[in-house]
Design a protein that fits this description.
CATH class of the largest domain: Mainly Beta
Shape: globular
Order of helices and strands: HHEHEEHEEHEHEEEHEEEEHHHHEHEHHE
Strand order of the largest sheet: 1-11-8-13-7-6-2-3
CATH topology of the largest domain: Jelly Rolls
Structural class: alpha+beta
Radius of gyration: 25 Å
CATH superfamily of the largest domain: Cupin
Number of domains: 3
CATH architecture of the largest domain: Sandwich
Number of helices: 14
């Protein structure tokens, strides 16, 4: 399985983190065949042949920046809740014959080699990772110049492609502008000059920091590459986490004084008090642990079905006694346990799949030893 060091070889990991991560693009020429083995033509054709698994959102066709309409490549078929749009293999092949590029979105769980890379990147950057496949043909550009609101690792697996990287890099974007003529015109004007052209060959890797303008064009043959979007948490997550933490403190549940009371001094004093409380929450070890758990929730747990075997269930119920206070990061788990009339150990592990199962199991054992839980 590829490690981050393998993906970056021969570039040193520390050099990548200090000089490129979030800052500058990096092209890494192929050193062996392991990276190109992430997806070959045969595996991609097998994925596309799973026609019942695709929707008009996960499979798209684009020709020189213009996306095909759902009617152009899909058909209505019966579904569990009524008719749904599904890509028609015949219509897809027709548009491909006319030069359309195929974009297969959200494939990070559909092909084991891609899944392995996605999970590795998720662990390495404490990030949510998605994977898209791009199949394009000679002199056809799927998307116009644009930037992404996440970091990108692109692995060229078949054929060759020219990437144009522009000089402009938007500072840490989190929201993309809505598509439309005005936005497209702004993107063309804002991208600046071409800073570098990168010729991607099978096994090559390209890293693009979020916000960097780019576009790509297949050369003289069909091209296949996989892009991995890497999106760690950023400051916005604090607002949702703080809402839960702050509501445990009476001062945040108190009404604000009127703005005109004491010429606004009462309101000002109240806000300053809340601000100091917020600073205390954010700087606490418990809040740091909660942020860490939010990061861990982005990392997918390996899936291991073993049917027809079924897992045995161990039933527990809370007693009303206090839960252990040693592992503050598991406070949210203990809070969930205390609100259940009865639950299984395995259900708790499933509810908090972002927590290491051994760590969660040890926490449940500690709660049982403390008398907060008993076997049922």
């Amino acid at each position: 399985m590829l490690t981050l060091e393998d993906l970056l070889t021969p570039v040193d990991l520390q050099l990548f983190r200090s000089a490129h991560l979030g800052r500058r693009p990096l092209h890494i020429p192929a050193t062996d065949d392991r990276k190109r083995a992430v997806l070959d033509w045969s595996a991609f054709n097998a994925l596309l042949s799973q026609s019942g698994a695709w929707t008009d959102q996960t499979l798209r066709l684009v020709n020189n920046g213009k996306a095909a309409t759902v009617e152009e490549y899909c058909k209505l078929v019966p579904g569990p809740g009524g008719q749904v749009w599904r890509p028609s293999p015949g219509k897809v092949q027709m548009l491909v014959a006319e030069g359309a590029s195929v974009i297969a979105n959200e494939v990070q769980t559909l092909h084991p080699p891609i899944t392995a890379v996605a999970q590795m990147l998720s662990r390495a950057f404490a990030a949510q990772v998605g994977a898209n496949v791009y199949c394009s043909f000679r002199d056809v550009q799927a998307f116009n110049s644009h930037f992404d609101n996440h970091d990108v690792f692109a692995i060229q697996t078949e054929g060759e492609k020219i990437w144009r990287i522009y000089e402009t890099q938007i500072d840490t974007p989190v929201d993309l502008p809505p598509d439309g003529p005005e936005t497209r015109q702004w993107l063309q004007q804002a991208r600046g000059r071409v800073e570098r052209e990168v010729h991607m060959r099978p096994g090559d890797v390209l890293y693009l920091p979020r916000g960097r303008f780019h576009d790509a064009l297949a050369t003289d043959a069909a091209s296949l590459h996989v892009t991995f979007s890497v999106t760690p948490l950023y400051g916005r997550i604090l607002f949702s986490l703080l809402d839960n933490a702050a509501m445990q403190i009476p001062a945040f549940r108190a009404y604000f004084p009127p703005a005109d009371q004491d010429d606004g001094q009462a309101l000002e004093a109240h806000l300053k008090h809340l601000g100091a409380l917020l600073a205390g929450i954010v700087s606490s070890r418990a809040f740091r642990d909660e942020v860490q758990m939010s990061q861990e929730s982005l990392i997918p747990r390996p899936v291991n079905f073993d049917l027809p075997n079924r897992i045995p269930l161990t039933w527990l119920k809370p007693t009303g006694k206090p839960f252990p206070s040693g592992d503050t990061a598991l406070g949210v788990v203990y809070d969930w346990c205390s609100r259940q009339a009865r639950f299984s150990r395995e259900d708790a592990i499933a509810q908090f799949e972002f927590v290491d199962p051994d760590r969660l199991g040890a926490a449940l054992d500690a709660a049982t030893a403390a008398g907060a839980l008993i076997r049922d």
